[in-house]
Amino acid sequence: MSFRIFDIAGSAMSAQSARLNTVASNLANADAVTGDPDDVYKARLPVFKTIMEPGHQDSAGVRVLGIVESEAAPEKRYEPGNPIADADGYVYAPNVNVVEEMVNMISASRSYQSSVDVMNTAKDLAMRTLTLGK
Amino acid sequence: MAIDNATFGIQEQALQLQRRRLELIAANIANADTPGFQARDLDFRKALETAQHAANPDAATRSLNGSAPQYRVALQPSVDGNTVDVQVEQGQFADAALRYQAGLSFLDARIKSLMTALSGQ
How far is A23 from chain B (nearest CA, A)? Predict the structure, then answer.
C-alpha cells in the first residue's frame, strides 16, 4: 500500500477546507455595507491547481494556487436613512451571492467527505497489508 | 520449494497494479473540483498481461510500475474541462479496494499454508 495516497487525499482535504474558509468569510461579510464603493468587501474565491510530481506519474494532488477577489460590481442600495450612506443616499453591499456560496459550501463539504472516505479505506488496506500472514 | 516470486504468483503483481489504481483514483477524487483535470485509470488486464509476458523479473517490475495510465472517456464533461465523475470514481475506488483485499486474502492463505508446511503441524 503506497503512502502517497494519504498525501493526495490530504492535499484535497486542505484545499477543500480553504474553500470552506472563503465561503465562511463571504457569508460572514455578505451584509457588511459601506458608503464607499471602492472600500466594500469583495467575494473571495480559491483557485485550485493539480500538482504533478515529476517521477510519480500516478500521483496528482491538488493545491490552492491563491485566493482571487470577484470582479462583480457591488450591490448599490438606496438607504438615505443610513448614517454611512454617501452624499446621494446610497450604501454599497458586497458582491457576495448567498445562493452561490451555499452551493459552494455543499460541494466543498461533499468533496471533503469523499477524501475522508478515501483516506479511511487506504488506512484499512494498509493495516491489512501490514498484518499479512499473521 | 524455493520461496521466490513464483511462490506468490500472479497475486503479487495483481496487488501492485490494484495499488496503483487506488492511487490514480484517489488523485481523480482529489481533483474533482480542479478546472481542466482529466480523470485517469489503468487498463488492468493489459498491464497485467504485459507484466506476465515480461522477459525477466526486472522488466516485469518496470512494466508494473511504469505502464502509462489512460484517460477516462467522460460521460458528461463539464464546462471547465474537468472530466471527473465522482460517482464513477467512488465506484471504481470501492472496486479496486475490494480486489486489493481479495489479493491480500489469497496471499494470506498462501503464507499460512507455507507456515503450516514449515512447522509440520
Answer: 15
